[in-house]
Amino acid sequence: MNYRPIMKRIFPIVFVACYLTAGSSSANSQETVKIGVSAPLTGINASNGKDLENGVRLAIEEANGQHVKVAGREVHFELESVDDQSDPRIGVQVAQKLVDEGVVAVVGYYNSGVALPAAPIFAKAGIPLIDPAATNPAITRLGGKNVFRIIATDAQNSGNAGKYAVTVTKAKRIAVMDDRTAFGQGAVDEFKKAVEAAGGQIVATEFTNDKAVEFNAQLTNIKGANADLLFYGGGDNQAALITKRMKQLGMRTQFVGSGGIADSIFIQVAGNAAEGAMAWEYGRPVESLPEGRAFAAKFKKRFGNEPLTYSPFAYDCAWVAINAMKQANSSKPETFMSALRTMQYKGITGQIAFDSNGDLKNPTSTLYQVKAGKWVPVTTIGE
């Protein structure tokens, strides 16, 4: 019997089967790990939300390009984003969606008011929440022990602002205004505490809401109180509109903003009225840090625009999670959570380590002022 024709037919089949088996084995050796992001991807805060999301996206793309291994197995990271719309109710809904999608860590939030009701959902699921932007001090004190914040809190940032206004700026008659969000109100509360502790005087307290575009009544009251400094707690777009209106009213009051205001959006919206405005931001100027300029360049190359305030922090959040998995030799949240608690990581925003509450150890704040149409660092506190 001639076996050669039969063997000619069988050999290709065997070869293909072996090839497919090898390919399947290779694919099975790679683990897929999802990292979630919750941010406002639509609405008035969409620019900052996309900035935050893109910081995480850039870190994940780099990790995949480096073929990161956890416990000897290559990991492919996937980004799972949800739009919380800066709405606490929607934030809770999409937080559960991230849990259901099987994320092992979440980077969020932009809004403190969304973080506060959503964080307990991740605590119940045993998933770490790594915070790049939400600064209300209460976020890390909800009892879940799963929140890790890599940015200064309102107590630290706005506290520095209040003390500085009295002791360095020498403001005698200080006004405050906020947008009634958990962030804005929290920032102003901490600022007021610091002003009063330093012996300063608050002569006017005003508020608006985070969707308002007209501030004539509040600013008229502040002007009438003869305030020499106005501290505003709220978003960049509104801060710019307030600054424009102040100029239109002929006010000489020094504008000082809370975190998240010293960005290109403020400059664009405020126009010429931006000149001389001040804002306190979290951390040191990114461009002054060893990897800061490189980050800004690769961010612009990848996304076509300059990074805003929070993308560097979001980028570091993602890498903190990835490095915790590597350190713990596991992508299971219940295992690498302990590595987060003892994390020592040198990020592009500075040295990252957490205290017993999950807040950043040794946080810094930087005061910026608009000069010749650009935000320029004035001083950094906490170095």
Question: What do these coordinates show?
Answer:
With 383 residues, this protein is an alpha/beta fold. It folds into two domains: 188 residues, Response regulator (Rossmann fold, 3-Layer(aba) Sandwich); 144 residues, Response regulator (Rossmann fold, 3-Layer(aba) Sandwich), CATH 3.40.50. It is built from twelve helices and 15 strands. The strands form three sheets. A seven-stranded mixed sheet has the order 8-7-9-10-11-14-15, with helices on both faces. A six-stranded mixed sheet has the order 2-3-1-4-5-6. A hairpin with a 2-residue loop joins β12 and β13. α2 runs parallel beside α11, α3 runs parallel beside α4 and α11 crosses α12. It is elongated. The N terminus is likely disordered. Belongs to the leucine-binding protein family. It holds the Pfam family Peripla_BP_6. This is Extracellular ligand-binding receptor. It comes from Caballeronia pedi. InterPro entries: Leu-bd, Peripla_BP_I.
Itemize the secondary structure elements and their pairings:
Elements: H1 4-28, E1 31-39, H2 46-65, E2 69-70, E3 73-83, H3 88-101, E4 105-107, H4 112-125, E5 129-131, E6 147-149, H5 154-167, E7 174-178, H6 182-197, E8 202-207, H7 216-224, E9 229-233, H8 236-248, E10 254-257, H9 264-270, E11 278-282, H10 292-303, H11 311-328, H12 333-341, E12 345-347, E13 350-352, E14 365-371, E15 374-381
Parallel strand pairs: 1-3, 1-4, 4-5, 5-6, 7-8, 7-9, 9-10, 10-11
Antiparallel strand pairs: 2-3, 11-14, 12-13, 14-15
Helix pairs in contact: 2-11, 3-4, 5-6, 8-9, 11-12
